[in-house]
Write a structure and sequence with these properties.
Blueprint (H helix, E strand, L loop, with lengths): L10 H25 L4 H23 L10 H28 L4 H22 L3 H24 L10 H29 L7
Length: 199
């Protein structure tokens, strides 16, 4: 991926952009729901349809949705638009299950985790298409993250752990930073290996 004109994959740059887009996607949904009064059902439908349209346009133009094929500016644009919509959709879907449908944050997180596990089983044991499996799991990580975030941040009376937004943000940022450091070190280690050993 070009990561906005970078010549190679740089974990710190990539995840910095992902974090920024996650904030924007979440804010879009929150503004629509909290300030403009759009229902969570409506936002879930809108973002689901919008995401399907982006995938359809992406595939019709590029004939592939594979992550490893994102090597042009056009494909990268499709990718980042899709990422933005997955975060907006994830916030809407997570809140819809946990709040509007009364499932609760912990139970919602379990539903999304189980769904991802089913996809993993489908891929590893039943030869599910790799690109389809990736995107389904990718999309489901968004409402899973939203449910986990709400579970940690919301007060005990609302079914959460009461860590607040600051405490929850610190936890998530710490996890992301740790992963970025790990990926950066792994990339540096691979760069030092002979080409025939990097597979």
């Amino acid at each position: 991926m070009n990561q906005f004109k970078l010549k190679r994959y740089v974990p710190a740059s990539f995840w910095f952009v992902v974090v920024l887009i996650s904030i924007v996607g979440t804010l879009i949904t929150d503004r629509l729901v909290d300030e403009l009064g759009v229902s969570l059902v409506t936002t879930t439908v809108i973002f689901s349809v919008s995401l399907l349209v982006v995938f359809a346009l992406w595939y019709s133009n590029e004939k592939t949705l594979a992550m490893h094929s994102i090597n042009t500016a056009k494909r990268e644009l499709f990718y980042w638009v899709a990422v933005l919509l997955t975060f907006a959709l994830g916030t809407a879907t997570g809140d819809l299950l946990a709040e509007s449908l009364g499932l609760g944050y912990a139970q919602s997180a379990l539903v999304f985790s189980a769904s991802i596990a089913i996809i993993a089983i489908g891929y590893y044991y039943f030869r599910m298409n790799a690109v389809l499996a990736f995107w389904l799991a990718y999309i489901l990580t968004r409402p899973l993250g939203a449910s986990m975030g709400d579970l940690l941040s919301q007060s005990a009376t609302n079914g959460g752990f009461g860590l607040g937004t600051v405490g929850t943000s610190i936890i998530f940022i710490s996890i992301i930073v740790s992963l970025v450091i790990y990926l950066s070190l792994k990339q540096k280690k691979l760069a030092l290996l002979p080409i025939d050993r990097q597979d």
